[in-house]
Design a protein that fits this description.
With about 120 residues, this protein is α+β, with helices and mostly antiparallel strands. It is built from six helices and four strands. A two-stranded antiparallel sheet has the order 1-2. It has a two-stranded antiparallel sheet with strand order 3-4.
Length: about 120
């Protein structure tokens, strides 16, 4: 996902986009560093929708990458990027509360799983 590229292709600058986006208080206009942080970080689906609406594209067009398979799943308010079948299976296992998929097996057949992060 190259948000900056799509924004630029549509004739927008980050400064101009910042002036059109709404802040947490609902008032139009945020700082350019705030927009950079959103774009370079892990934007929420709501922010992606807002940016897409402002620059006049669909969310799918905004996040597409011709060289990669992309998918986004919102889980508990967090947007998770999925770029492979394995990552999709991991996210689905997480949602279902199942043991994560096998990462690999050693020569004796012992299975190794992705460890869940401690909360």
């Amino acid at each position: 996902m190259n948000l900056k590229k799509v924004i630029k292709e549509r004739g927008w600058t980050l400064e101009r986009l910042a002036s059109e986006m709404k802040g947490k208080d609902g008032v139009k206009g945020v700082s350019q560093p705030s927009v950079s942080s959103i774009i370079n970080g892990n934007p929420t689906f709501d922010k992606l929708q807002e940016i897409a609406s402002i620059i006049g594209v669909s969310v799918s067009e905004l996040v597409k990458d011709e060289n990669q398979i992309n998918g986004y799943i919102e889980v508990g308010g967090e947007l998770k990027k999925v770029t492979s079948v394995e990552e999709l299976e991991r996210v689905l296992s997480e949602i279902k509360g199942e043991r994560p998929p096998i990462l690999h097996k050693n020569i004796r057949g012992k299975e190794y799983f992705e460890k869940k992060a401690e909360e």
